Amino acid sequence: MKLNTLKPADGARTERKRVGRGIGSGLGKTAGRGHKGSFARSGKGKIKAGFEGGQMPMQRRLPKIGFRSRTAADTAEVLLYKLDVLEAGTVDFAALRAAKLVPSTAKRAKIVKKGEVSKKFVLQGLLATAGARAAIEAAGGQVGE
């Protein structure tokens, strides 16, 4: 092998197309862009995401539905029967976090009625559903805001 005999493999290097250089080149006149249309124009080859050629796009044909609350992700639900692992007395958000009843990402907690509660709790700074509030008050506790 000599340095003067080295050459790239067949097909590894191809010459670039020189478009728009006359009828004999095979890529003259429209230079491979076809006739008219957005791709034939200079600087107009990009199409926005969702564009369907002038047809009403899918995201506008479908109805607008639903709502996602921004605060729902910050609120942890605590089931009523799980409060029994706590000592009777005052229960606040810090107590729920210490007992690992709410995740560390939560900013507030809401007590939801599921099961029964046997101890007397005083809730402070916690949200509660109407059913949970009634069950806590029936057990002798109270819900403060």
Question: How would you characterize the overall build of this protein?
Answer:
- The structure is a single chain.
- The chain is α/β, with parallel strands linked by helices.
- It has helices at 58-61, 93-98, 130-138, and strands at 75-79, 89-91, 108-112, 121-123, 127-128, 142-143.
- The strands form two sheets. A three-stranded parallel sheet has the order 1-3-5.
- The model has no long low-confidence stretch (mean pLDDT 90).
Write the layout of secondary structure elements.
Layout: H1 58-61, E1 75-79, E2 89-91, H2 93-98, E3 108-112, E4 121-123, E5 127-128, H3 130-138, E6 142-143
Parallel strand pairs: 1-3, 2-4, 3-5, 4-6
Counting DSSP E segments of at least 2 residues, the number of strands comes to: 6
Regions with pLDDT < 50 over 5+ consecutive residues? none
How far the N terminus sits from the C terminus, by CA atoms, comes to 89 Å
Structural Rg:
35 Å
Strand content: 5-15%
Helix content: 10-25%
Question: What's the average pLDDT?
Answer: 90
Question: How many strands, what sense, and barrel or not for the largest sheet?
Answer: 3 strands, parallel
Strand order of the largest sheet: 1-3-5
Give the name of the CATH architecture of the domain at 76-143. Answer: Ribosomal Protein L15, Chain: K, domain 2
Sketch the topology as an H/E string, one letter per element.
HEEHEEEHE
